[in-house]
């Protein structure tokens, strides 16, 4: 569709920023940085204004279409997420922030639009006052905002928090009680095949956990029982031992799932095929650890063998590795996993697991949420098959909003509009939003494969460790 003059002007601004030449003088470079920071803050305020206007116009449109009032605007954040290339959850938080700036924090919004404060400072004010009434928020905005240009993010947060406590001390106590009910534990992948385990606890509990680990780790070091481990390493090992009930951290029984090529597992192309025939696989490429992401093939092989140092297991160690191997076929042109049975209503069993392995995370572009639902892209009621081709792993949010008026999803294979070279058939979904914007989502290839011209298919292995296999730290 043709662009408006306002959009064209923004495109021109982007091009000007792309071509910006740093100043020759260092003092001018600093001035440029200051001006660019103001521009970034002003752009954040503009995004907020456009987002709130878009929300209102979408609600009006859906009202005219007869959408029930409680469902109007539910997909607005998802459309914003696609346009801004961010996750839907982030877009929802941003939209809530934008509405707060418009309705309750107008002075803060003006400072942000003028580039006098950063977006992080404005978000700090919003975060610390979000639980208050509109009148209380507006009063704090008038009180605190005038000092914001001279405050850091931490100082702005503290100032808004103090004002919120004074405005409604009883609410602060209620929030603390509610927050205690939100305690939880979650994991997040870290670089170099590490993993962060995070616990949200009450302040007293969190400090007690950390202080106990530190005290006992210092005692082990003082007694000489820690060997050459550092204080942080001993604390980490104690954390694992006490949570799992194991005598040592390396004795934790695990059941995990890996996706890797036969070349990665055995160090050669399957069936003796030479490179250049069909899908090429790299013995030292990246395997996929479900629930974590890509890991080096050497680490995957070591996990199978259960070797202590996670490095370079010997063939004998691999032979002794207790692993259950399931063959999954790979498209010889694209290196992607392909098909299974079709005539069922529910995605379960092998089909469900297949979709999980193929898609890994929600198929909505820019959404990194874990797969919660297995969705018919062409609805079952419209004749859509329960197949890996017509199925997609999605988050609950996308599964709901894709059924709202104006949304369509369809599977395409090798379409020119998806920029797929002729003859290749990646599993690609075309998503059209109510505004007519079109987005594509293509399933990632199997780790370690390089698409080539079609040849006889190779295999991947899905390695599932039995509970008795022990993975060393």
Automatic annotation (TrEMBL):
Boundaries of every HNH nuclease domain copy: 350-400
Segments of this protein annotated with the region Disordered: 442-473
Protein name in UniProt: DUF222 domain-containing protein
